[in-house]
Write a structure and sequence with these properties.
two-stranded antiparallel sheet
């Protein structure tokens, strides 16, 4: 407001003062969401500066700031000014001995569950594999049998000679055009 009045009078605006932010009330907390910094990793993108007023890069809505790369954005997110706007300090809460012991116990329990989930009965697994292989063999046998049936049915239909076939057979000196292969 002061700057607007100074500009109307033809004077230079005052340099920007730091915003007066509230004193932070919370200690630093772990983020509950993923920043998706690796979403466009290794990709080349064309960026249109004219379409968005804020420019290319990573934009922080809270601070109205654009960072040109993911490393700068991460530094900004973890920086003092951003945390201050969130109402957090840069100090981390210290864990008590009981909290550490509880965390270790929960991690041990989780790893024990993971190990028990991986163990299984080898004999039952071998039986399952043998049954699966037997089914596959049976399917292959059935396919071969079906193929043989189709071939024999096809030969049976074609084995009825027409008049031109009979004349050709007599000229060549044999009985039929059917296969002599034994089945």
């Amino acid at each position: 407001m002061e700057n607007e009045e100074r500009i109307r009078k033809g004077k230079k605006p005052l340099t920007r003062r730091r915003e007066e932010l509230e004193k932070p009330t919370q200690l630093m907390q772990q983020r509950k969401f993923d920043l998706h910094l690796d979403r466009n990793l290794g990709k080349t993108m064309m960026v249109d500066n004219a379409s968005s007023g804020r420019g290319p890069g990573f934009y922080c809505e809270l601070c109205s700031r654009t960072c040109k790369d993911s490393a700068g954005y991460l530094d900004h997110i973890n920086g003092r000014t951003h945390l201050r706007r969130l109402g957090q300090t840069t100090q981390v809460a210290r864990s008590t001995l009981d909290q550490v012991r509880a965390k270790i116990a929960s991690l041990r329990e989780r790893s024990a569950q993971a190990v028990s989930a991986r163990t299984y009965d080898f004999e039952s697994r071998i039986r399952e594999i043998a049954e699966k292989e037997e089914k596959e063999k049976e399917e292959r046998r059935n396919k071969r049998r079906d193929k043989r049936r189709r071939v024999t049915e096809k030969e049976g239909v074609d084995s009825i000679p027409t008049e031109t076939d009979q004349e050709a057979m007599l000229a060549m000196g044999f009985g039929s055009f059917a296969s002599t292969k034994k089945r």
